[in-house]
Structure formats: structure tokens, C-alpha cells
Amino acid sequence: MPPRQQRRGEGQWALGYREPLNKNEENKKNDDGLNVRDRIVDIYSKAGFDSIDPADLRGRFRWYGLYTQRRPGIDGGKTAILEDEDLDDRYFMMRVRIDGGQLSPEQLRAIADVSTKYARGTADLTDRQNIQLHWVEIESVPAIWETLESVGLSTTEACGDTPRVILGCPLAGIDADEVIDATPQIHEINERYIGSPEFSNLPRKFKSALSGCTAQCTVHEINDIAFVGVVNDDGEKGYDIWVGGGLSTNPMFGKRLGAFVRPDQVHEVWAGVAGIFRDYGYRRLRHRARIKFLMNDWGPERFRELLEKDYLGYALPDGPAPGAPAGARRDHVGIRPQRDGNYYVGFAPKVGRINGELLHVIADLAQEYGSGRVRTTTEQKMVILDVPEERTEALAADLEANDLQVRPSTFRRQTMACTGIEFCKLAIVETKQRGMDLISELEERLPDFEEPLTININGCPNSCARIQVADIGLKGQLVTDADGNQVEGYQIHLGGSIGGAFGKKVRGLKTTADELPDYVERVLRRFQKQKTDGESFAD
Ligand code: SF4
């Protein structure tokens, strides 16, 4: 670590820096984020929005998946200028965590009910398998929790400096080719540690992924901690552990510790890594508070040594690295066999946007054609499980009648968009509608384009929609149009891929939002013209 930083300290608890070095740390020290639940139920939901303590409103509410929405009508040019209170609407975004993306019919219907009753019908699938609702009023929150919790769902630690939703393959336990079913380990971590004060004050968010999926759909390379299914030399199934991945404004891929973790050890290894992050993570500056910075400074050897010596109390054996992902698209769209002889049907709404009514339709179809089990994916898509082969085409037709495509174009299948200016206070530009419009335009202009191609659209320099690992990454910002006006547009990143390279920011390469379809069409036509046999866009 550079000497200047050592002198000032990074706010690492384990080195004795317990005094808060910024406002967020101070808020967390003043009161655990988990304690806000009682105040929401007993006071704020009864006394109304104006009764909410600002430190709860803009801080601790996140521990229960609640953010104030952006006040409508404030343009992106004001995002960086205005104070939080000027950007705040009186409504909330609520994130429902769906660990492993696994939903029973009752759970899906509960979310659909909450959406239609309390969230003006909104429901967005996120790229971390959550469902986000909007327009939620503080008065409704206790009733929403009651509905969700009655079916085993929760918003606890869906946001905030906490262990967020745990990613899992939507086909866990049913995929014919999976290395290992990570569902029991996801449940165990959830039951032991989510909502526990042991990990409710981390330096920042902590994103986990556990999967034995051969497509590696949980994108282990960009999670704070990831367990990837492998088989060791003795034929034993377990996990390879990766730590320190993350995108945002300083993207880094996670690093392998090189250790083999048995399934029964997963929860304590997870707790050990989360504990290192809690104790040694940098708390002085928010933008350096993710575990990736610690890993970057320490390296995987030192990290593993501390984990084994001080947190586990035993050494982990070395283990194999996972192979390359199977298939060019790391997703589960389409009709494919399960190992029990049934089929799963993965389908694509546009950029994850659905609504409460559609969720009810999906729940009906899942029960009519399958067992009712539904999964959310890490690409803003959904999967219906347990469909007999002879009924898959009828289900596909019913889904498509609701514009939920089972055989979508490349553009619909692989375009993702973050929340953007419609609801997000950090946004500079619109994303969801532009993403939907872009898909429609490209489908019309390039109907024969079938190569894998990811287009990810962000509304600001953060990377909620993973722009740095997209073939075409679009970072929202204001740009100057031909008439010299400041308008919504995007900085272009080209050639990114998960685990490969981060997309290159081509200097000065920006497009206005209006010209976006023309720009993407030009790039893709040039690719089609110049590509050699078998060459992908990523190549
Ligand atoms: Fe908001 Fe920016 Fe994240 Fe989009 S990338 S959801 S605009 S913070």
C-alpha cells in the first residue's frame, strides 16, 4: 500500500481504525441498518413520509431493499448538481431478493399481487435475479412485507453495505449437465448469515454467486465472492473459489484462490471471506471500499493464507480451475431437456421489463404446463421448469402471445439495460425505453443477424448493466449534438467480455441517443462485411 495511505489509514477495523471516516460509516456506527425495520413498521408507515429521519431514508432503508426514486422531470444534467433531497421522490423502489433465482408458484403470485396492488403494476427483472418494484409508498411497506414473508420471500439486505442476493444457476438441480447443484449451499448461507448483525455492517456491498452450471451463467468473474462447481482429481465434487470481482468505475475480474472447497465447507469459507472484507476492507473512501481493492493490493496468496489461518483454522487443499463456459451465450433462453426427462423453457421479455399482470400470466402458464416452478436469470430473463416435451411448443406459443419470446433475436436475447433516469437518482440518461426501442429497430434493420452479441446500456458511469463486459457497452452521459446542444447520449465501449477483456473506451467515440440505432447498425454491418469464417464479434 502506498505510504501516504498507510499513514492516514484506510479505516480498516482490524488495524484499529474504528472511528468512522465518512458519513456512511458514521451512520452505520450510530445504528445498525437492520434496526430500521421496527421504525418503518411502528412509526414511519403510520406517520408518513415526512416523519422519516433522513439518516434512515437515505441510508438504513437500503438494508431492506428500499431506495427513494428519482423525482420525475429532473433532467440528467442536474444529477450531479442537486442534493439528494432535491432528487428524492416520495415513492420508493423496492428490491425483492430471489436467492438463486428460485420462485415457487406462490412466491411468484405474491410478487405479482404486490406489484399490482402497491407498485402501480411495475416489475423489472434485474441482472442479479431480483425483481424491482417502483412507486411504493411508505404506508404500504408493512403490508408488502407481510405478503412477501408469508411465502418465504424477503427484501432484507437486498441493498445496502450487506451481503446482497446470492446468484445461482436457474437450472440448479435440474440441468442434465451441471457439475453440482449449489441450491443447498445457497440456502445455508441465506439462513445462517442474511439479516445477521455479524455481516450487516460491511465496508460496502458484497455480491455472491454459487453455481455448478456449465454455461457459468452466474458470471463468477465479476462477483465479490464466487464458488464455481468443479470436480477434483479424486472425482469429488466441490467448488473453486474466486474473490474480488466487480465492475463499476474501476472494473476488476475476481481472482482464484486456487483452493478446493467441499460443499459442507462452503458456508464457513463464505463467512471467512465476508469476515475478512468486514475486518480489513477499506472504509475511508466509498469508491475504494469494495473487496476487489483489498484483493488487488494483497493478491490471492496472502488472502488465502489469512483466510485459512485466522478465519477457518484449517488449510484448504489446492483444487482445479473450472473449464471454459459451455456455449457462446452464458444464458438459458430456449427449450432444453432437464435431467428428469422434462424440459425447461427460457424466455425473454425486453430488457427485463415486465409487470404485475404478466407475472400472473407467467404463474398461470407455469402451473398449466409445468409444476409451477419459475426461475429468474442473471440476464433479465425467466425460465419455466418441468414441462413435458410434448407441451413445450404450446407453452412457447402462449408465452409469445404475451410478447415473452422463447426464440428471440440476438438483440432481444442479449441486450440488457439498467434502471436509468426513469427511477434512478444517479442516472444521467434514459435506458429501459431506449433499450426496448433499440431492440425493435435492430430486429427490423438486421433481421438475419444471428451471431452472439451483447449490448448493455447504463444510465451513468456505474455499471449496473455491466457495460465493460459487453460487446457493445453504452455508458450514459450528456453529449453535444450536431447543433451544439447538450443531449442524452452514450460513451461507447467496444469488445468487452466476461472473463476476457474489459471493453475498450474508444476515445471520443460517443453517440447521441437518437443516433444510437444508426451507430449500432453501422458497426454490425461492417462486422458482417469484414468478418472471416467463424469469427465472432468478440473475436
Ligand atoms: Fe442507476 Fe447508474 Fe446503476 Fe443505471 S448504472 S441503475 S443509472 S446507478
Automatic annotation (TrEMBL):
Residues 20-32 have a biased composition (Basic and acidic residues). Residues 159-310, 412-539 form the Nitrite/sulphite reductase 4Fe-4S domain. The keyword Cell membrane does not apply. Keywords: 4Fe-4S, Heme, Iron, Iron-sulfur, Metal-binding, Oxidoreductase, Thioether bond. Residues 89-150, 336-401 form the Nitrite/Sulfite reductase ferredoxin-like domain. Its cofactor is siroheme; [4Fe-4S] cluster. The keyword Ion transport does not apply. Pfam families: NIR_SIR, NIR_SIR_ferr. One of its GO terms (molecular function) is heme binding. Its EC number is 1.8.7.1. It catalyses: hydrogen sulfide + 6 oxidized [2Fe-2S]-[ferredoxin] + 3 H2O = sulfite + 6 reduced [2Fe-2S]-[ferredoxin] + 7 H(+). PROSITE patterns: NIR_SIR. It comes from the Bacteria. Residues 1-32 are annotated as: Disordered. InterPro entries: NIR_SIR_4Fe-4S, NiRdtase/SiRdtase_haem-b_fer, Nit/Sulf_reduc_fer-like_dom_sf, NO2/SO3_Rdtase_4Fe4S_dom, NO2/SO3_Rdtase_4Fe4S_sf, NO2/SO3_Rdtase_FeS/sirohaem_BS. Belongs to the nitrite and sulfite reductase 4Fe-4S domain family. Catalyzes the reduction of sulfite to sulfide, a step in the biosynthesis of sulfur-containing amino acids and cofactors. This is assimilatory sulfite reductase (ferredoxin). It comes from Actinoallomurus bryophytorum.
